Amino acid sequence: MTSRSSGVAAFDFDGTLVGGDSLPRYLSLLLGRDRFAGVLGRSVPAMLSSYRSGGRDAAKASLLARAVAGVPVMHAAEVGERFACQLAGEIRPEMVERLTWHDEEDHRTVVVSASLALYLEPFGRLAGFDDVIATRLEVGPEGLLTGRLLGENVRAGQKALLLGRLLGSEPVTVWAYGDSKGDKEMLAMADHPTLLRRVGRRRQLSLIGRS
Fold first, then answer.
1. Phi, psi of 207, deg, nearest 5
2. d(CA 168, CA 123)
3. How far apart are CA 52 and CA 43, in angstroms?
4. Pairing mode, if any, of strands 145-150 and 174-178?
5. 2 phi and psi, to 5 degrees?
6. Given a cut of 70, is residue 23 above it in pLDDT?
7. pLDDT greater than 80 at residue 157
8. What pTM was estimated for this model as a whole?
9. Bigger pLDDT: 172 or 202?
10. What is the SS3 assignment for 139?
């Protein structure tokens, strides 16, 4: 935990700090492209059923249950470290500018994402973030991933809840950056919420709510 206290900047990851969805890329690296394609194909019916009954969180849990159960956590972490090195070089230029400004202002920077801590924690270290709030996977007694989440998927209301716990009770000015409905609650709790909107083939930062 950092000693910075003049402000906090919370960043969503997928679609905000970097483009696209990082989870399929990680699973492809973890399992190999062909094996992951097979797992994904076999998982589609269960994922669709889970989505109808429990939404995106349930569909994601259904995929992970089939993709990572039985994988040694040490291997998953090693792949996560390698993937993090790639991701650290993919931060959007406009986000690099914002991170530089927040660092100059001595603000505490936090990644808040539904993506996996296995690669977001090393990404956070490489990219200079102070804290990472991300989805965690359960590890069994023999050091193997069980395929289940440890806690909740860090999306929507969970983002605001866990960020609020990290901030504590001391008053602090909060900046937040997101790009989707899954960031709505986190943006709503910020003094300076910023939404990335797509304009043609590019995305631009748009201040929303309070200025």
1. -70, 130
2. 24
3. 14
4. unpaired
5. -90, 160
6. yes
7. yes
8. 0.88
9. 172
10. strand
